[in-house]
Amino acid sequence: MVTARLSPADTKTRILDAAESLFVSGGFDSMSMRQITSAAAVNLAAVNYHFGTKDALIHAVLSRKLDPLDAQRRAMLDAFESNYGAKLNCEHVLVALFLPAVRIFRSDAPGADRFLHFLGRAYTDPSPVVRDFIQTHYIETLGRFFFAFQRTLPELSREDLGFRLNFAMGALSSVLAGGNTHRLIREFTQQQGDHEALILARLSSLMVAALKAPLPGPQEASEFGAMANLPGVAQIGQVLVETTESVPSSTASAPTT
Amino acid sequence: MVTARLSPADTKTRILDAAESLFVSGGFDSMSMRQITSAAAVNLAAVNYHFGTKDALIHAVLSRKLDPLDAQRRAMLDAFESNYGAKLNCEHVLVALFLPAVRIFRSDAPGADRFLHFLGRAYTDPSPVVRDFIQTHYIETLGRFFFAFQRTLPELSREDLGFRLNFAMGALSSVLAGGNTHRLIREFTQQQGDHEALILARLSSLMVAALKAPLPGPQEASEFGAMANLPGVAQIGQVLVETTESVPSSTASAPTT
DNA sequence: GTCTATACCACGATAGAC
DNA sequence: GTCTATCGTGGTATAGAC
């Protein structure tokens, strides 16, 4: 509505900013309402007033950053599909998947430099509150990208593509969550001209490698089996279990192996 | 150490089992002492008596599973280096890195079927209690594997290898932490003979692809740059920035990563 | 409609009784 | 070794000030 004063919207934003920062630092379960409210310089009850609950607050934090990212990803995939049609290849799809995040990261929006770190945390947080939200809100876009990858990589079966995409996306999330993103990216871009393109190229090259790697057949598997059966290797970790189920009373566990 | 009765060791083990299960489900910060003790059917204070603190408890939980894994990894790398010497290749190193985990996963030890899930959680948990413990206790083995990879992949620079290893290990952890591992892996292995070898081959092929992918140069980067500048793509997510104060400010403080 | 003070129950941790 | 009582802190809910 009208709301002449300028304080109300500011309070919500300050809470969101503080919560986001604490979320990136230690994850959802780690951040406390008292930490959030004191960092935002608002009253403890302000969170409950504006968001209702801690779960709803993290949903708002996630939506604020992930909704625009999701929309840009879809828009970019649309643009590539319109431009290339049947000639769409998997590099195009990867660009549509990565470029929006890289652009946000390289923008001068507040907190943009921490965006990749935030993205990694959001995708790796163990809390069901976070995982369920992401898995229910951005499934549609994920399905679109899955379908696009399937079109550009017809040699992969549905299950195999799922395995590789899971692998690739997990890799990206984990790398970003590590927080080394800054140092890593700076290293590769310090003497280059087009930062955005080079970051894209680096990430995409690894992804393409994981997506296009030849599928191991029985013969490759048997090679690994031969390695595993080498003398001095075969017995390592071989669980020769004579004790049925209950492990002996030793403080330092010798069993398991 | 006398402990004639059978209860004391049992109490510790039950606590460890309950804590491990809850850790896999929701991470470190999510699991509560009351959840743990009630699941283990012991008194609330039993945890503090046997382990001292919640942090020490999770350290014990991690050590119980990760120490044997770490030892087996080192032993297997030793065996491969003895067998192959200078002819060691990066597939060998990958087998030494993965096979111990796969063997534990496929053993009939209690909770072995959840081992990969546990491993993923341990490597991705956001809590400093977990991260610091892992990074301080298993650094030595990580260094050994890094050195082994460096020998078998001399064409990669130290920094590039670090980036790719980070990528590959993050992928593995994230895939495992996802929990879909069981269903996914079962799908690919249900009608095959040598499960262990095939799982190894699958994981290794993706890792090898990520480790051996050609490093993108300026020309590849410019191709991606061209994609990003297509009509209908260039303006998506472009944060119309007129203020270009902090451009390529090389704030790279730490030289070597 | 916006914000504050405060009370409520569950959490981790500790001391001391048994 | 095991348990109970207790303290400070976590998320949540409400009454009331502006």
Describe the protein's architecture and organization.
The structure is a homodimer of 257-residue chains. By secondary structure, the first copy, chain A, is mainly α. In chain A, 69% of the residues lie in helices and 0% in strands. Chain A has twelve helices and no strands. Chain A has helices at 7-26, 33-40, 44-51, 54-84, 90-106, 115-124, 128-137, 139-152, 158-178, 181-189, 195-212, 218-228. Chain A is globular. At the A-B interface, helix 4, helix 5, helix 6, helix 9 and helix 10 of A face helix 1, helix 4, helix 5, helix 6 and helix 9 of B. The first copy, chain A, binds a DNA duplex (18 and 18 nucleotides) through residues 1, 3, 5, 7-8, 11, 32-34, 42-50, 53-54.
